[in-house]
Amino acid sequence: SIRPSNFPPGPRGLPLVGYIPFLSKLDAEYPHLALKKLSDHYGPVTGFYLGPCQPFISVCGYQAVREALYNEDLAGRPSNAARRERTFGQRLGVIHNEGPEWQEQRRFTLRHLRDLGFGRTSSEGLIREEIEDLLEEIRACQLVQHGSVDFKGMFNLSLINILWALIGGERFKRDDQRLSHLLDIVDNFVHSADFTRANIPLPDFCLSYFPSLTRKLLGLRNDLFTPLQDFIRERIRQHSKDRSEDNPRDFIDVYLQEMTKSQLNSSDNSSFHAETTSGSIGFAILYLLHNPEIQRRIQMELDQICGDSLPQLSQRPSLPYTEAALMEAQRLSNITPLAVAHKALRDTQLQGYSIPRGSIVTVNLFTVHHDNDDDESFWKESEIFRPERHLSPDGRKLIKSDHLLPFSAGKRACLGEPLARNTYFLFTASLLKVFEFHPLPDRPLPTLKPKNGLTLGYDGFEAMVTSRS
Ligand code: HEM
Questions:
Q1: Where does heme bind (predicted)?
Q2: Roughly how many angstroms between the first and final C-alpha of the chain, as a whole number?
Q3: Is the confidence metric ipTM above 0.85 for this complex?
């Protein structure tokens, strides 16, 4: 056997592509559930080989996931030709990069997005404008459809606009054809593949010699990126023409200032990030449709603290119940159940096992948020939506726990967390302040089952929306 000694336990040798049917047998739809089943059998750290030489390590449960996230040897990212194809054939940007270049890109992005108001209250105005537009659109739907509103894709539009305002300095009108076209691309791309297929470690030559077969196998619709790349390239060209050295307006200006030679790539990231935040808002509303009593309690708290105005970031500390409900929705919905695949940068140890350099490592955040409901479990009755889990016994203080990791943790933790948190809070709290959400009469409650893809999304749902006076 090629397994090094002390390799984590797991099934023997899986052929490269054979691992898909294998995982499907464990769970036909969701890779994170398939990997959880494997770990129920073998333990929190499971190892197997894809084909002759690609080790794959699945990490489940709070203890092992934390150890993995704080082990810097596991902070790499797998790369393959199909992934690089989306970034002009090179490893660019932050999310799929590693080593000194990743470090530099991550630092640069954080520093300048912060300067541009990202995650601070100065971006509140920008988010507020999007919220006002969204509320308008919902009111218009209410009128036309007698109160019933279809939420498919609705939040995505707002989120793309916020990200693009920071990156490209431009806001689209909600009915702009170019915007809806870009959104279709993003949506089709994110749901054109799933985590398992996107991580098949096919050797690079496959893409050169068997391009269409390889793409079919990976399911990645990189071709969808061409119009997105064209769009971004055009904006960069425009920016380089009319930017001023002293007064950068947005991230593209800052980036151009720093390295005029390098090609900015934000397309790779933006699809993932708009989906995650809009997905969180959608799931929060969905869970509150299922839990009307909790929806009412949030609304009571919002009325008490915000009066007749929309909620503001500065009021967050006075809104513990609302915050707790939002955290609970994130715990249950698991937009990114397997985070983004990590890679072992060198030989290392995890829970006492040896992890060979180059291993693909998945941290199963879902299993941190869902316990097996035994005596040792942290989240008791983990399937139940219960905001009180995140509150002190008197209900006045929020309890933040490291058993809740929607943004992951460690060196690779989500870079957009401050912006995502603010956006998620402002949108969801504003929607609940202004509207009541009810199920459609005589119809079953919309499903909580997520739509599979690179991230888990909510399936478009309809609800009766009434305005609160
Ligand atoms: C609710 C919304 C969001 C969730 C749940 C989320 C979650 C995550 C997770 C789980 C990861 C992978 C961490 C790991 O590999 O261990 C990640 C990475 C990342 N996220 Fe987010 N994210 C959200 C929104 C955003 C937004 C709005 C942005 C950008 C403005 C963003 C930028 C990034 C970047 C750049 C990375 C890669 C970091 C790296 O590889 O160093 N995210 N996110």
A1: 414
A2: 70
A3: yes
